[in-house]
Amino acid sequence: MDANAEGDIRMSGGMAGTTQVTSGRMAPIEDDPAKVLTAIDTIGSRIAQARAAIGRVIFGQDEVIDQTLITLLSGGHVLLVGVPGLGKSRLVETLGVVMGLATKRIQFTPDLMPGDIIGSEVLDEADGKRAFRFVPGPVFCQLLMADEINRASPRTQSALLQAMQEQRVAVGGVEHALPRPFHVLATQNPLEQEGTYPLPEAQLDRFLMEVNVTYPDRDAERAMLLATTGAYDEKPAQALSADDLMTAQALVRRLPLGDTVVEAILSLVRGCRPESPGDEIVRRQVAWGPGPRAAQALTLATRARALMDGRLSPSIDDVAALARPVLRHRMALNFSARADGAVLANVIDRLVGKIG
């Protein structure tokens, strides 16, 4: 159901400053609904090209690709959770090429230090004078893969947290801005937890989505087997640029939002909190629920999903489709619920059923 048919439409921030895709570059457009629709159609077409380019390299992970693209269009970071060998690293590498982003990778280990991520100062000597010079770390990129992020110590995790939240780092009392756009795609192995440092709730909340990477189906795995073990390996082609991505991110924030969709997001997020009087199951099973940042993330994600599909505004179907990846890392079951075999996804689905 389209939000246009659901009541009054809210336009966030107006359309001033929105840009329209032309051949090669983005051009500013005015507050003209026809031009706005053209921009949405054109950007949606370019994103569809990007999805197709990624799909030719990453097999059987359409939902993972879509959710990751939605996160990037929303301007956020994504936590990819899955066992080794499912193509998480390959996905990040492919995204960097298809979207024209400068990509770097960090393999997190317990002995990794903050300076190994953000950079450090070195002492230089020239013409008899000594001075400190800042050497940027791998975080100075546009798309950072944080591989097995939970293997780093809390001190190192906190250094990345500042970069994710503020898009800048401070070294020696001097702040250094990160490139734009800046996104972190972190991976986490759900099986091997020995020697790991679980991410604190404050850092988990910085990820717009937690995307579960599962095994591909038989047909997809067969296609992957044939494509990756032959003499020719498919290479991704660039479909977007960094400027295109930032333009799309600006347009996402200006898509109109129906009052019914706003109320559905509020009802869902507030209903996930154990303090809420709405659902007995939630009060009995949930230890802590999502904060206001979850509602902000879900609002942006629903808009991005609509833009990716070439639609003017999001619907309740978008809210339902994105509820799990946006909420599941922002809430937890209590001990008694886990002991009884309760599943967090079932709690979220129960509440999603009430907003339809």
Describe it for me?
44% of the residues lie in helices and 19% in strands. The radius of gyration is 21 Å and the shape is globular. It has a single domain, classed as Rossmann fold (3-Layer(aba) Sandwich), CATH 3.40.50. The strands form six sheets. Strands 5-8-11-4-12 form a five-stranded parallel β-sheet. Helix 9 packs across helix 11 and helix 12 runs antiparallel to helix 14. The chain has 14 helices and 15 strands. With 356 residues, it is an alpha/beta fold.
At the first level of CATH, the class is Alpha Beta
How big is the Rg?
21 Å
Class computed from helices, strands and strand pairing: alpha/beta
Count of domain modules: 1
Could you give the order of strands across the largest sheet? 5-8-11-4-12
Number of helix segments? 14
Examine the coordinates and then state which fold CATH places here, giving the name of the CATH topology.
Answer: Rossmann fold
- What is the string of SSEs from the N terminus onward? EEEHHEHEHEEEHEEEHEHHEHHEHHEHH
CATH architecture call: 3-Layer(aba) Sandwich
Number of strands: 15
Q: Return the average pLDDT rounded to an integer.
A: 83
Low-confidence stretches at least 5 residues in length (pLDDT < 50)? 1-30
Span between N and C termini?
Answer: 10 Å
How do the helices and strands line up, and which of them pair or pack?
Blueprint: E1 9-11, E2 19-21, E3 26-28, H1 33-55, H2 62-73, E4 77-81, H3 88-98, E5 103-107, H4 114-118, E6 119-126, E7 129-136, E8 143-147, H5 154-166, E9 168-171, E10 174-177, E11 183-188, H6 201-204, E12 207-212, H7 218-228, H8 242-252, E13 256-258, H9 259-271, H10 280-285, E14 286-288, H11 292-308, H12 316-327, E15 332-333, H13 335-339, H14 344-355
Parallel strand pairs: 4-11, 4-12, 5-8, 8-11
Antiparallel strand pairs: 1-13, 2-3, 6-7, 9-10, 14-15
